UniProtKB/TrEMBL annotation:
Molecular function GO labels: 2-hydroxy-3-oxopropionate reductase activity; NAD binding; NADP binding
Entry superkingdom: Bacteria
Family that this chain belongs to: Belongs to the HIBADH-related family.
Protein name: 2-hydroxy-3-oxopropionate reductase
Residue intervals of the 3-hydroxyisobutyrate dehydrogenase-like NAD-binding domain: 169-288
Organism of derivation: Streptomyces swartbergensis
Keyword NAD listed: yes
InterPro entries attached to this UniProt entry: 6-PGluconate_DH-like_C_sf (IPR008927), 6PGD_dom2 (IPR013328), 6PGDH_NADP-bd (IPR006115), HIBADH-like_NADP-bd (IPR029154), HIBADH-related (IPR015815), NAD(P)-bd_dom_sf (IPR036291), Tartro_sem_red (IPR006398)
Amino acid sequence: MSNALPKIAWIGLGIMGSPMSENLIKAGYDVTGFTLEREKLDRLAAAGGTAAGSIAEAVRDADVVITMVPASPQVEAIAYGPDGILENARSGALLIDMSSITPQTSVDLAKAAQDKGIRVLDAPVSGGEAGAIEAVLSIMVGGEQADFDQARPIFEALGKTVVLCGPHGSGQTVKAANQLIVAVNIQACAEAVVFLEKSGVDLKAALDVLNGGLAGSTVLTRKKDNFLGRDFKPGFRIDLHHKDMGIVTDAARNVGAALPVGAVVAQLVASLRAQGDGGLDHSALLRAVERLSGARI
């Protein structure tokens, strides 16, 4: 049966890439991976995948190439150049970039790939590490309908909400909006937490009742325990949210959309990073509010 499934090359095995690639292996796909860290390649092999020694080796025989790296510069580094994906993948392959990058980078990549006979989808995700592990990610896609239809079974092994949002770059635009909403939401929750604690209220009780009403959100459900336990082990690092706030503020400026609250939260994320908290989970926005309020850190 598994022979009928497309052969997949996976480039980038980080916090998101490792569990996602493993979910494809569990679904019966043949996955060959490449990443820079040896222990991540060992983890892939232990899960039943194949470790490759280079991008070229990983993509050579692949029907579908999936990339999951931190930002636009990394996507460009792995896609272009003599050792990159476009030079080494076979004509007719489908390249699915699941990184969160600027919409323009996705548009440019699709254009460059077309010259090589390679089709491209931008397919960034939302749901963080937990969503990746549980295969319940939200996947927003930009590209052609036919390519989306071909990729759908792969997406359905990785996520729960899978939507084609429009042409190349559209997935990235929707992801940028997602990151805007998430950051503002975490900031609001963080302000509420500090307010509640300074008021001497039972924080757990308060967050439980708030989450049951209109103030409730997926953000609060997922991050409640981070706030309560001051546990900022990264599911999604401040460094990456900082990058994403740059993407959304820049893209909004380009289309003439004002993001007054988003711009303030972008600065708060930047300040948290400047204070050395870039490697913490984005729920650590709580620390920034605590600093401003003279509360405990």
